[in-house]
Design goal:
This protein is α/β, with parallel strands linked by helices. Helices cover about 35% and strands about 25% of the residues. It contains 9 helices and 11 strands. The strands form 3 sheets. Strands 5-4-1-6-10-7-11 form a 7-stranded mixed sheet, sandwiched between helices. Strands 2-3 form a two-stranded antiparallel ribbon.
Length: about 240
């Protein structure tokens, strides 16, 4: 198996909703908070480190967190040969900084949220395979709940959930396509994710159905739920 995939793990956010404090200590932020006895980002990184098709992992952290992250996690960073990149003011700037640090042998780029520790191996297999076939693929879960559009907490109208999907990560792209997308970025309208940038090029982005267990930790309740999923995953091994 060719090792030609570079994985960008994004852990540079403020985690304000998680900590309720925009100036929280780095280890209180959601990527570094313990889940099942290990920092959340480590669960995410391990899923990719043990794959034979992954050539490089880049962890993106806020510049002000870099010293602490290197000190606290130096053993894991060395063991997994992880490169660090500085985050930017916006998520897309963080990913762009990581792209500049990818080695020349990386042909495919997977962007993953550090705060999604519960992604499963079979999900990664599927989205990697689809990205190789098409050049652009993302994990996603079909919306199943009833949706309402509201104004000032008053329901105004129902919203059809037909053909609605919640975008997850990893989002995986041919490197040349993703770099072109970042070269063409409209900085006046920051994208919410990488697939939005690639779609703006006129490229089709393919959805790979994933599990709703691949949650993104945003609140303390999410962390507790992730710990349950991780415990179940460990018990199944």
């Amino acid at each position: 198996m060719t090792a030609d995939i570079g994985v960008v793990i994004v852990a540079a956010g403020k985690s304000a909703r998680f900590t309720q404090d925009r100036n929280a200590d780095v280890l209180a932020k959601k990527p570094f908070a313990p889940a099942g006895g290990r920092a959340t980002w480590l669960h995410s990184a391990e899923k990719f480190f043990r794959r034979q098709d992954v050539a490089q992992i880049v962890l993106v952290v806020a510049p002000e967190d870099r010293v602490v992250v290197k000190r606290v996690f130096q053993d894991e960073i060395q063991r997994m040969k992880i490169d660090l990149a500085d985050g930017g003011a916006e998520r897309y700037e963080s990913v762009q900084n990581a792209l500049r640090q990818l080695r020349s042998d990386v042909k495919i780029v997977a962007v993953h949220d550090a705060a999604r520790p519960c992604v499963q191996e079979e999900e990664i297999d599927a989205v990697f395979r689809k990205a190789r076939e098409t050049g652009a693929a993302i994990l996603a879960a079909q919306v199943v709940g009833s949706l309402k559009r509201a104004n000032q907490n008053v329901v105004r109208e129902p919203v059809s959930r037909d053909n609605l999907w919640e975008a997850h990560t990893p989002q995986v792209f041919d490197r040349a396509i993703l770099e072109r997308a970042y070269d063409a970025i409209d900085r006046s309208a920051p994208p919410t994710d990488d697939s939005q940038l690639v779609a703006a090029l006129g490229r089709d982005v393919y959805l790979v159905p994933g599990k709703r267990t691949n949650i993104k930790i945003t609140t303390r309740d999410d962390l507790e739920l992730a710990e349950l999923y991780l415990s179940a995953e460990k018990g199944a091994l």
